[in-house]
Amino acid sequence: MDLLQNLVNMRSASEEPVPLHEEFIYCCGAATHVLKCGPWKDLSKDESKNLPRLLFMIIPGNPGLAGYYRTFIQALYCGLNQQYPVWVVSHAGHCKPPSGMEMIEDTDIKELEDVFGLNGQVEHKLNFLRKNVSKDIKLVLIAHSIGCYITLEMMKRASELQVLRSVLLFPTIERMAQSPQGKLMTPLLCKLRYVLYMPVYLLSFLPEGVKASLVRFALRGMKTCDESSITTSVNLFSVDCIANILYMASQEMMKVVERDSTTIKQNLKKLIFYYGTGDSWCPQQYYDEIKMDFPDGDIRLCEKGLRHAFVLDASKEMAAMITDWLQDDLTKL
What we know:
Helices cover about 40% and strands about 15% of the residues. It contains 13 helices and 8 strands. The chain has helices at about 5-15, 70-80, 120-130, 145-155, 180-190, 195-205, 210-220, 225-235, 240-255, 260-265, 285-295, 315-325, 325-330, and strands at about 20-25, 30-35, 55-60, 85-90, 140-145, 165-170, 270-275, 300. Strand 7 (about 270-275), helix 11 (about 285-295) and strand 8 (about 300) form a beta-alpha-beta unit. Helix 1 (about 5-15) packs across helix 12 and helix 5 crosses helix 9 (about 240-255). The longest helix is centred in the C-terminal third of the chain and has 17 residues, at about 240-255.
């Protein structure tokens, strides 16, 4: 099935309501937002005969709010002919549960010492899978930005995971502080991030409509902007949420230094890399170097001019491409 056919499928399927289930849970002691596309709400029961063979799980970038990927997972689910569940799990603490919504306590998994840090976010995703997904289900991990680093760490630490494919979109897996954007942001994130807390705290008292207007103003330069991105961005006015986001980002600048070529080599046949041409977080130089080091790898360079934060305006286009890339894998199932 080619890219055009995938887009047609998504457009026709989008006319029908896409089943989307939303949960706020505690995982490793941290608030976590989960969006689940498809009729499957529970994939942990091994005895069930109705379990799908495959789960598509999205590992977000930073900010790791699940809502940013709402349109993306719906488009991906439709592009897959609604045959497989597509889930996105927020990063630990990167969500603001709605007031009055009952939180589901996770009593089987111990709290992590630093769940909001980079290492903690890796363990957070692994613990979520162990708790919520049967070991018999194969995985397609679709990671974005720092989610790519987290995904490689997951594959390194948990070789028992049945990963069919990992798709790494705009992968920040090396030298983040040395990237053009990293050079600009590292002093702010590592030394001055606390200065941002007070303005965010004051802005948090604004009415929701005013917050949404501020987000629209900030994104005014974009020709088209996903509406779900605007509503999700309102959560960034929460001090707890923004503190966890900036803390994780500061760790990224310090800890994401050398590319883990060993893990890449061990899993090369399972990996698809997708780099941007004008990406200031992982510049084309990084693409050229990894392509040279792994000439047999599936390492692609964007020809469509998509931005690093593709979820803001190109979710459907990205979903169509990924569906096209994975057709051979899916026909072999």
